[in-house]
From TrEMBL:
CDD domains: TRX_Fd_family (cd02980). This is (2Fe-2S) ferredoxin domain-containing protein. InterPro entries: Thioredoxin-like_sf. It comes from the Bacteria. It comes from Streptomyces durocortorensis.
Length: 134
């Protein structure tokens, strides 16, 4: 994750990060019990309205980490060295809020993620990540 200070963030209007929320075969289903999956997606969309693009995607093939969320950098974030960050086991509202805070501040490459999100980060196989890392 990025360790840049806010003063290093390029001017607004240079794109937005993308938050991809897995809603495939396991994530977003009753296979992950105790989570209101529709409410989770709605909270992310509401919290990031205008600050990041939030999209529900098909299975990201990391089911053992469900619910999976990938925070992808904006174009400026990528130029600053940011890369997609895969977060797994995102099954509580506190983690969602930390993701909202980070993505709204610029996301990978432009803003530091809250330290607690380090507990959720995982590295998918190259085959799995190829579709989003490109």
């Amino acid at each position: 994750m990025s360790r840049r200070s806010r003063k290093d963030v390029p001017a607004q209007g240079a794109g937005r990060p993308t938050v991809s929320v897995c809603r495939g075969c396991c994530c977003g289903t009753e296979k992950i019990p105790g989570v209101d999956h529709a409410a989770q997606l709605a909270r992310l969309r509401s919290g990031l309205d205008g600050a990041a693009t939030v999209r529900a995607v098909e299975c990201l093939d990391a089911c053992e980490q469900g619910n999976v969320i990938v925070v992808q950098p904006s174009a400026d974030g990528r130029r600053a060295g940011g890369r997609p960050v895969w977060l797994g086991l995102v099954n509580d509202e506190h983690a969602e809020q930390d993701i909202v805070t980070w993505a709204a501040a610029g996301g990978p490459g432009l803003a530091d993620a809250p330290d607690i999100l380090d507990l959720y980060v995982f590295k998918p196989s190259r085959r799995v990540s190829a579709g989003l890392d490109g």
